[in-house]
Amino acid sequence: MFLTAALTIGGAVLLGLAARRDEKPPLQILGGLALVGSAALLHLTGPQPILYSLGYASAELGAGLLIMAGMLAGRKEGARSFFLLGVGAMAIGVVIIVARSIYMPQVTLLVELGPDDTFDEIAPLVAYYDGVAERAFPMVDLTENEDLAQVYLIRLPKDCRDALKKFLELDTENVDNVEANIAMGLDLPETQELDYEARAEVLENDPLVGSQWGLDAIHAHEAHALLADLEPVRKASIAIVDTGVDAGHEDMTAIFEDSPGSTDRHGHGTHCAGIAGAATNNGLGVASLNWEGRFVSIRSYSALGDNGMGTLESIAEALIEAAEAGADVISMSLGGQSPIIPKTMVDAVNYARSKGSIIIVAAGNSNVDASNNIPSNVEGVIAVGAVNERLAKAPFSNTTGRLSRPISAPGTNILSLKPTGGYVRLSGTSMATPMVSGLAGVMRALNPDLEADEIYEILRDTGRSTGASSAVGQMIDAEAAIQAVLNDA
Q: In terms of DSSP H, where are the helices of 179-249?
């Protein structure tokens, strides 16, 4: 932009000098036109977006015409025309530039620098494309993870994204990875009519427990009979990475741990939290595997907004924060589609696993192969599919047969908490996931030394074979899994 402005103004000065002379020198005129033409050619052929180029070209031309008008001010002929043309061109340029800055959507890129590089090395290029940068994961330093510590979030106009991404990818000396900060979030299926006959007698005193078919399916009542006489080695923490959690709900207050996402204007995170760990046998609401609230606590990290959507960066950041806080289990009922697994998500998962966290992720609700569903397709996570009341694959559930750690749980018409009080049924692999997370949390509470891979192996080996096992993995059996942990203790 500086070069084109200099060429345009230089050309205008030459043309203005020529116009002041009675005999117009052709070489001076040609030189001025050549400079202005060169500036126009650079705008047309340069890497900048068309609106960007048009706005600045018009503003530069306007400035040049105003300079010519000033040089001809002593002469009546020509000065007024150049002045009016200059004002018009300048106004058009300013309008285009301002309108673009207001109405052009902003997008974000995730840029990972090499461990020995600094942002200053790419700052001029980022600024050239109107980009603004910040560290994506400031809570991670180079001594902890040299990849995540070097990731920057760059916000820039949408029409500049492809060009900047191209030039950053060419800068292999300073840049290790560039990827779009893709949108991720929720995609809940509709809840259908419940196909289930409630149990008449149950062990728990929660008033709605008889309507929780999923607890019957996973042998939760039998698991409660085991847990009633046990004390955990220590309470395990389950981090809900979602829309937040209503920490003030009657079935949540006793087991919620201080954490950033203590409110929920959407409802999804609160529902998932109740499935994972609602206080059980407390005479209120629903039950989970968390007998009397003694085995797990709930933490919340808001990766998604009030509309249920987030980004690769916001989800990775919440995952990292949960791991940094020492979460035993990180439950992620969210996702997005991508044929290429983003390196940022892989790095975040590996970082959380290195901190000892067990990561359990929804397989997705599109009734397709989950191989392209992130983050359930990231190596190291437990991917959860859903079964219905007949223990068949839920019609919406993605299949997980090609993933390395598939498991399944009830995911249709699951009753749980809603914000500001009350209870509601929802369906989705989103609901199956915290059911698995709750069981993993209880297992970790009984034996804190269990590693993530050991947890998965127990879930798989003790799981129930159903008609859906080949599509979504074995269905968890809470009683059998807990008994296996006790037998190995």
A: 213-217, 220-227
